[in-house]
Amino acid sequence: MPYILIHCELEALIASGGLSGKHQTYALLDERFPKGGKFGGEDPLVELTLRYLMSHGPATVKDVSWWSGLTMGDIRKALAALGSEVEQETVDGLTFWAVRTDGDPPTARGVHSSRRTTRRSSGTPSHDGSATRSPRPSLPPGVIRAGRAV
After folding, report:
1. Are residues 18 and 67 in the same domain?
2. What is the DSSP letter of 59?
3. How far from each other are the two terminal CA atoms of the chain, in whole angstroms?
4. Are strands 143-145 and 111-113 parallel, antiparallel or unpaired?
5. Are residues 47 and 28 in the same domain?
6. How many whole angstroms separate alpha carbon 15 and alpha carbon 95?
7. 3-state DSSP call for residue 47?
8. What single-letter DSSP state applies at residue 136?
9. Helix or strand holding residue 91 (H, E)
10. Which of 53, 58, 72, 141 makes an SS bond possible with 96, Cβ 3.0 to 4.6 Å?
């Protein structure tokens, strides 16, 4: 039975889900992930850039390009298309982009590794050949609890 389920997942017929008690659940792929609208033009570039900045920002154009495999020109076009949804800040000659937020960041549940330590351990190339720099030099590497560095 496990081989049949794995084969069906690889053929994109079913998708595994969460546990129900001690048992794995499955559903038809089309039921679990309904078809979405088609992207056209620059929409995929804009969406990908926005999602990266929401999860990894602030970041440089080079950071987004390294992660996505897109050209830096494509990233710049996406940032231009995002317009007022993003903001930029230059620190030590590097321009960092972030999703514009109003007020305090949303409160996160649990404890998370900060971006600075995550990037250093992931092998992201630094901009000057030294250790990865943070756009907020006053923020020491550490953990985030309830949306705040501790």
Report:
1. no
2. B
3. 47
4. antiparallel
5. no
6. 41
7. helix
8. S
9. strand 86-91
10. 58
Place of tokens 């030099």: 137
Name which of 137, 150, 148, 143 is nearest 114 in CA terms.
143
Could you give the CA distance from residue 16 to residue 27 in angstroms, rounded to a whole number? Answer: 7
Local confidence band at 78 (pLDDT 50, 70, 90 cut-offs): very high
Reported confidence tier of residue 134, pLDDT bands at 50, 70, 90? very low
| Residue whose entry in the numeric block shows the structure tokens 């990908």 | 48
Q: Which helix (H) or strand (E) holds 88?
A: strand 86-91
Domain contains 51: yes
Tell me if 114 sits within 8 A of 143, measured CB to CB: yes
Q: How many domains does the chain have?
A: 2
Q: Is the distance from CB of 95 to CB of 57 less than 8 angstroms?
A: no
| 5-63 pLDDT per residue, tens | 889 889 988 988 888 899 888 888 888 877 766 666 568 889 899 989 988 888 999 99
